[in-house]
């Protein structure tokens, strides 16, 4: 039986990946310290270890006998990283060094890394293609790109197979929706279900493409199970339906029949204005296709959050320093 270890297995992406590997007959184990994600995301069939990846001694034995490592653990908090760089760097590039060390010592065959579109920063052209020189412009993007460099360097030096995948703005069930720092679509749904107006930072003209979870999982599995994108970087997600944050709010309001009048707050520092990724490479090599429209994806997200019921936002992570640029939604807990 093939063995896979998923870091961040209680997270949104990690838990869906775990289900997909279980369905394909893998023996699945996972590591999570529950700083993000939800415990109930993890299937009973997963051997889940509650441990901090920052503890190399504790995690080392969990890598023995593992064939494939999927490294999805991270504090994926781009906006917060501007004010909590130590926390985000520790739980992004520092833990990646530990995961590499443990994988190499255990003789893991292949490691697949979940990077981020934050690696690109602002580029002169859209959509972002894999050949562009990364220009991360906040501590989260820097730590994600540093992780990529660590993985590439150590894998090549010691002969481990690896693949770097770049998902972006995923939506779907199991996403944390009570988190005030991230996941714009889930935050908007949670607020509207509470009868509160969505909060928009800046003009709301910033644009993104949103990816539905199953459309992301399918090509990720191809990348894990074949060698077609080994040793390279590959974007995963749609380049269709490039939408502004204002229009995202309108679309969600329509789905929820909500009378929309957004609250505008000052823009967040270092936020990339327009960002989308080309899906051409994934279409060609990983059979990527966008089979869920944005409206359908947002409807499924809204239904999932509605079923669980709206929740108060939990300010569970520290802001390391506050300046006049720190969003008041965080310092004054306005969510
Ligand atoms: N969701 C997206 O839209 C998206 C987009 C691009 C990239 N990614 C990347 O995909 C990965 C998964 O993202 P997600 O949305 O599922 O986030 P998530 O927060 O839902 O999952 C990450 C998991 O990692 C765990 N974790 C963090 N630090 C840890 C540590 N020190 N030790 C053990 N566990 C730890 C958290 O508890 C959490 O359960 C991340 O690497 C993220 O950068 C996600």
Order of helices and strands: EHEEHEHHEHEEHEEEHEEHEHHH
Bound molecules: nicotinamide-adenine-dinucleotide
Could you say how many structural domains there are in total?
2
Strand order of the largest sheet: 3-2-1-4-5-6-11
Instruction: List the total number of helices.
Output: 11
Principal-axes shape call: globular
Q: Could you describe the largest sheet, including whether it forms a barrel?
A: 7 strands, parallel
CATH level-1 class of the largest domain: Alpha Beta
Strand portion: 5-15%
| Termini separation | 47 Å
Overview of the molecule:
- This protein is of the alpha/beta class and 335 residues long.
- The chain has two domains: 3-168 and 213-236, Rossmann fold (3-Layer(aba) Sandwich), CATH 3.40.50; 171-208 and 239-276 and 290-331, UDP-galactose 4-epimerase, domain 1 (Alpha-Beta Complex).
- Helices cover 36% and strands 15% of the residues.
- The chain has helices at 12-23, 56-59, 78-81, 85-106, 139-158, 184-193, 213-225, 245-255, 280-286, 294-308, 328-331; strands at residues 3-7, 27-32, 47-50, 68-71, 110-114, 161-167, 170-171, 199-201, 207-208, 211-212, 233-236, 243-244, 263-265.
- The protein has a seven-stranded parallel sheet with strand order 3-2-1-4-5-6-11, sandwiched between helices. Strands 7-10 form a two-stranded parallel sheet. Strands 8-13 form a two-stranded parallel sheet.
- Nicotinamide-adenine-dinucleotide is lined by residues 8, 10-14, 31-37, 52-54, 72-76, 91, 95, 114, 116, 167-170, 176.
